Amino acid sequence: MKLIVGLGNPGKKYEQTRHNVGFMAIDHLSKKLSLEFDKNKFQAVYGTKMIDGEKIMLCKPLTYMNLSGEAVRPLLDYYGMELEDLLVIYDDLDLAPGKLRLRQKGSAGGHNGIKSIIKHVGTEQFKRIRIGIGRPDPRMDVIDYVLARFSKDEQPLIDEAIARTAQACEKWARSPFSQVMNEFNG
């Protein structure tokens, strides 16, 4: 089984904000696969679906961003999944809006949700898809920026990035992640 986790903050007030692009990607993929989030355990909502003989679990932690690892670790343990079967989707300030970056491992890069996952799984060795949200104007506070909605100019770029992220996740069900990286990076 493969676990695909989208990072974000639960609750209406955070829906469609830059920091919730991981949730948006998971929601898009769940609709595409007709997957229901029919489980609510381990501080997360999740559901599973078979894709070409591979069981895929989509997950949205309900811990709030900075504590995401508190949901991810128990899921891995309970279902006996290895770290090589984990893929995390999240926002990245250092990438232009809509740009994707797929990696096999890496540091948290200042992202508190990733810091929490690294802390709880004990390593930086897990797959990730970063979706660019761009940087705020220097006069704007970063927290206010990530908790704001996308501009009208950014939204089409984000929608396309979310669709490509869903395609990359589906491809990972059938292909090695290195092939997925070659196709979707950039």
UniProtKB/TrEMBL annotation:
This is Peptidyl-tRNA hydrolase. Keywords: Cytoplasm, Hydrolase, RNA-binding, tRNA-binding. Its EC number is 3.1.1.29. The record marks 9 as: Discriminates between blocked and unblocked aminoacyl-tRNA. NCBIfam families: pth (TIGR00447). Belongs to the PTH family. It is an enzyme of class 3 (hydrolase). GO terms for cellular component: cytoplasm. GO terms for biological process: protein quality control for misfolded or incompletely synthesized proteins; rescue of stalled ribosome. The active site is at 19 (proton acceptor). GO terms for molecular function: peptidyl-tRNA hydrolase activity; tRNA binding. Hydrolyzes ribosome-free peptidyl-tRNAs (with 1 or more amino acids incorporated), which drop off the ribosome during protein synthesis, or as a result of ribosome stalling. Monomer. It catalyses: an N-acyl-L-alpha-aminoacyl-tRNA + H2O = an N-acyl-L-amino acid + a tRNA + H(+). It is found in: Cytoplasm. It holds the Pfam family Pept_tRNA_hydro. TRNA binds at residues 14, 64, 66, 112. The lineage of its organism: Bacteria, Bacillati, Bacillota, Bacilli, Bacillales. SUPFAM superfamilies: Peptidyl-tRNA hydrolase-like. The record marks 91 as: Stabilizes the basic form of H active site to accept a proton. PANTHER family: PEPTIDYL-TRNA HYDROLASE.
